[in-house]
Amino acid sequence: MAYSSGRVTIQLVDEDAGTEACDPQPFRGQSYEAIRAACLDSGILFRDPYFPPGPDALGYDRLGPNSEKAKGVEWKRPREFCAEPQFICKDMSRTDVCQGRLGNCWFLAAAASLTLYPRLLYRVVPPGQSFQDGYAGVFHFQLWQFGRWVDVVVDDRLPVCDGKLMFVRSEQREEFWAPLLEKAYAKLHGSYEIMQGGHMNEAFVDFTGGVGEVLYLRGHTPGLFFALRNALAKESLVGATALSDRGEYRTEEGLVKGHAYSVTGTHKVSLGFTKVRLLRLRNPWGRIEWNGAWSDSCPRWDALPPEWRDALLVRKEDGEFWMELQDFLQHFNTVQICSLSPEVLGPSPAGGSWHIHTFQGRWVRGFNSGGCQPSAETFWTNPQFRLTLLEPDEEKEDDDDEGGPWGGWGAAGARGPARGGRTPKCTVLLSLIQRNQRCLRAKGLTYLTVGFHVFQIPEERTNTRNPGEIGLRTCEQLLHCFGHGQSLTLHHFQQLWGHLLMWQATFDKFDEDTSGTMNSYELRLALNAAGFHLNNQLTQALTSRYRDSRLRVDFDHFVSCAAQLTCIFCHCSQHLHGGAGVVCLTHRQWTEVATFS
């Protein structure tokens, strides 16, 4: 194994040094600006060659070429059946998005939630698009797909049946951003029918790049109202589902079982000495509302002061309604929340900041697919990632006095013990995403059953290791690095032993206080002495990854870091002329290289 790390320098650069992470990648290489300019020059309206109108765009089974639902469908541009089409009307609201003949309430409920926050909406639906100025029959939308934004271009030929839009529509008949967004989503995944059935969190994540989680409700769920109120305050997207074993059906109370609703608001009112906690929900159909307590026609509203009643109540069949928390818990089974990333929220969101770490990997049969049972002998071969939580949440008082599993929601940022001597807590959200599974539906494939386990490493296991000692995970890295994933030959073992001795000597030299650990400054010097020339950003990234809860790096983690850098340096040197030079990687590129090294 030829290795000379001193001849290669790796620099971690900001994304804007290359392609920005927030700059969307053109889907199928189609540039909206280029297409629009070409169409305007030629005077021809855009016709999308990658998603042409026809049976294949509609679907593959119930909407397939020979299906009854696909008969009589025409593809028309809005100008052909609307006198004055608008992309987005000025008085757009969450009640505009209405479901059509497609069973994609999960998508529509998420889109309705998106309209609550114009900043989020305009990230997905770029402004400046119009059916008047510069109209060329082309529109574009930006969706998050597995770690990056993609820009999806569509023409405005929409499926129409009996003179009406077949699928999603706006309550304002002249508004068309929603059906065009639906078409872009259908194009991204292959057809409209692929959108049949799903979970709101899928669309939430695709609209924001956030992290989705599901709360399974019980008859009494302490802390839920507080959690929902704070989630909406942090501009999280929130939805709820009334699960059903027999598809969608309407109940006597006006709810639709097996249906997805968006949660659009919370409010607490006082009736005498009683506090009433209200949730505002919306049916994406744009009709069929709850008719129980606190519904639009409920007389309880008359007991409220007029200014409260006027601010909260809209007596209109628009699919939106209020209901009390206890009624909500009786009729709904799950709540889905999508927490947004710093890139979407900006540098100073209302609730604090999140730190995002992305790992990419895969299970390979016969190599690292160790099964789902921790008791199995092969379980340890599954991909593993170690996470150290360093910053406790800021504790917030819950004036509802609910407590419970979600009563302490807060943003990371503060350090030190929590109030009252309680053990500090640190909120972490873990999300496991499968690539491209929805696109494979047309081939009869569904989501794979996958999952993950979270294990707490006992304090004594993290703090009592011998300073000359290295762990099993690091040994695996060394075998992979020096043996190319195979058994070590004598020559490779000699190389490995030589590097271990060198790293031991380097570690001892820069562990000036002989504590068995190094701080970030000592780590920087040690890595440089070992032949790894890194810039400040990369050193910071490595320190953040390999430090422990005391912000120190022990010998095991130093060897793990050095072994990984050895692999990466060797890999990069093979792609440089003469094997020497400077390699600049963005954060995303570094993550990809580091994951597979």
UniProtKB/TrEMBL annotation:
GO cellular component, one term: cytoplasm
Entries under InterPro entries matching the protein: Calpain_cysteine_protease (IPR022684), Calpain_domain_III (IPR022682), Calpain_III (IPR022683), Calpain_III_sf (IPR036213), EF-hand-dom_pair (IPR011992), EF_Hand_1_Ca_BS (IPR018247), EF_hand_dom (IPR002048), Papain-like_cys_pep_sf (IPR038765)
Matches recorded under SUPFAM superfamilies: Calpain large subunit, middle domain (domain III), Cysteine proteinases, EF-hand
GO molecular function: calcium ion binding; calcium-dependent cysteine-type endopeptidase activity
Listed Acidic residues bias regions: 394-403
Keywords noted in UniProt: Calcium, Hydrolase, Metal-binding, Protease, Thiol protease
Domain of life, per lineage: Eukaryota
Residue numbers spanned by region Disordered: 394-421
Gly residues: compositionally biased ranges: 404-413
A biological-process GO annotation: proteolysis
Positions of the Calpain catalytic domain: 45-341
Active site feature: C105, H259, N283
EF-hand domain span: 498-533
Known role: Calcium-regulated non-lysosomal thiol-protease.
Family membership: Belongs to the peptidase C2 family.
Name of this protein: Calpain-12
Protein source organism: Cavia porcellus (Guinea pig)
Species classification: Eukaryota, Metazoa, Chordata, Craniata, Vertebrata
